Each structure stands twice: as C-alpha cells, then as structure tokens.
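Morning!

This is the sequence you dropped in the shared folder:
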Amino acid sequence: MTRISVLLLGALAAVIFALIILIILPTTLMAEVPHPAGLRPYTSQELRGREVYIANGCVYCHSQQLRDRHFTVDVARGWGTRSSVPADYVYDSPHLMGTMRTGPDLFNVGIRLPDPQWQLLHLYQPRAVVPWSIMPSHPFLFQHKESAAPGDQVLALPPRFAPASGVIVATPDAKALVAYLLALKHDYPAPAHDASGSREDDDEQ
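The structure's back. Tokens below.
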C-alpha cells in the first residue's frame, strides 16, 4: 500500500468518525426530546421575523444560549434564571445558538425587554436607546413617510434622531423581527432531565 493510499484511508476514517460523533450520534440522542410544557411553537409572523433575523446576520453578534452558572455569569447578569437545555430548541430549525457575544445573549430577550416600541427604536437606531451601543442601525427595515396612514406603527424618535419632516414607520419585516425577539422567552421550568440524562436542577442542590 502506498503512502497516498494510507493518507486517503486515514482521511476517510477521520471523516467517517467525525460524521458519526458529531452528526449521527447527537441526532439519534436528541430525536425524541419532548418540548417543555411552557414552550410554544412560533407563529407565522414570528417565523418570518426569524428569517429576517437570519438574513441580517444577527446570529453573528448575538447568542441564544445560557451557559451553566457554575462556569459563567450568564445567570448573574440577569439573562435568565437557568442554563439552556436541548428541549428549549425543539422548534428551532436551523438552530441559532450562536458562538459570539458582541452583543448580549437573546435567549430571554422577550422577558428582559418586552416593549415592542423599544425594540423598534433599537433596530432603527440603537444609539437612541443605548448611547454606547456599537450595534449597526437598520433603517432599511423602516419607511420615511410624509404622514402616517391608518394602521402604521410610527416610531417615537428622540429629536436628535427624528427626521426633519414626516414620520418613520415600521415595515412588516421590522414588526415581524420584533415579534420574533419578543417570542424568545424561556422562563418555564426546564425538563428534569436533558437529552444526556443529567439533571438540570443538580445545581440547586
């Protein structure tokens, strides 16, 4: 057997091993994870907002996972009362847990910041509500109109950020994105056992 054959076989074995360990085994273990009683499916508007969230790359700066309180300060920061478990994501496809936290975690943003008007202002111009924010503004999710029409959701902007004339109104995409963010609530009790068999409430003992 030549060296090239050995290398090819080794590479193939590594790929197969990774496929089994990282994809097939986790999928099998989590295939029957039941949804928690307090977790509801997304509405059609929330699903649309989730697509807007993905399209605008929000997952690159925001995570949606609270880590174990024994190792991090996620809970101490007020981002939630417990760490996340696999059952929290049964309605999420694709999963948007994220790996970066340029901005705060959003696992429970619907509980921490439940005001739709605040969320809309934050999307249009983050500095209007958080002066030190480095989040980019998303004015393309809004419309500048000379006057509001019936049913328009008008932003109450501070004078510094308000247009010289007319009003700023939320588009359907902006309202859908806010609906999705407000749906991120995980204040229900976690299942007693996660998919790995460990107890979520072990850290309470």
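Headline: The CA atoms of residues 41 and 91 lie 6 Å apart.

More detail when I'm at my desk.
O.
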